[in-house]
Amino acid sequence: MLRLILGIAFVLFLVIGGSLLVPMIKPKLLEQSELVAWQSLVPDQDLDGTSVVADLDQKQLSLVGFMVPLDYSGGTATQFLLVPNAGQCVHVPAPPPNQTILVSAPDGVKIRNLYQPIKVGGGLSIRELQTAYASTSYSLLATQVEDYEVQP
Questions:
Q1: Tens-digit pLDDT profile for residues 54-110
Q2: Which residues on neighbouring strands pair with residue 144, listed in sequence order?
Q3: Cβ partners under 8 Å of residue 48, min gap 6
């Protein structure tokens, strides 16, 4: 019953405001460490969720998303997935590979609550990988991880 309630709440979150977390920014407008939208990672002609935007390889950028810890000890993660919506990979299916980023944080970062949005910045690379929870098309070496407050 709790899963059903969480699922309904998640769908409502997506319908009401989940897509408003970050502004729409096209890949050609990217500058160093600019905050970009998840849609920027998906080419216009993506049919299966695996196509990538080649121009993003080795770019410095930031994204707002949700943490799914992979490699952690205590309350610190050194590797995690960044996904566009809360609960993905855990309570609902994983997003497509081009909407899933494997983040490495060698110095470790505090593990956040499943529903706490975070802003992650660093160098993005095109790199297809399979993790325990999802396939990824991108990886990011984090230089910045901070809580993100959604503005009403």
A1: 999 999 999 999 999 999 999 999 999 999 999 888 878 899 999 999 999 999 999
A2: 121
A3: 96
Q: What is the pLDDT of residues 120-133, one digit of tens each?
A: 999 999 999 999 99
Distance CA 40, CA 98 (A): 10
- The three-state secondary structure class of 27 is helix
Question: pLDDT digit string (tens) for 6-58?
Answer: 444 443 344 334 433 333 333 333 344 789 999 999 999 888 999 999 999 99
Measured CA to CA, the distance from residue 149 to residue 147 in angstroms comes to 7
Within 10 Å of residue 138's Cβ, how many Cβ atoms? 24
Q: Between 2.60.120.280, 3.40.50.300, 2.30.30.40, 2.40.50.870, what CATH number should domain 2-147 receive?
A: 2.40.50.870
Residue in 84, 89, 152, 151 with CA at minimum distance from that of residue 118? 84
Listed in sequence order, the residues at least 6 apart from 63 whose beta carbon sits closer than 8 Å to its beta carbon are 22, 35, 36, 38, 82, 101, 119, 120, 121
pLDDT attached to residue 99: 96
Question: What six digits make up the tokens of 150?
Answer: 């959604």
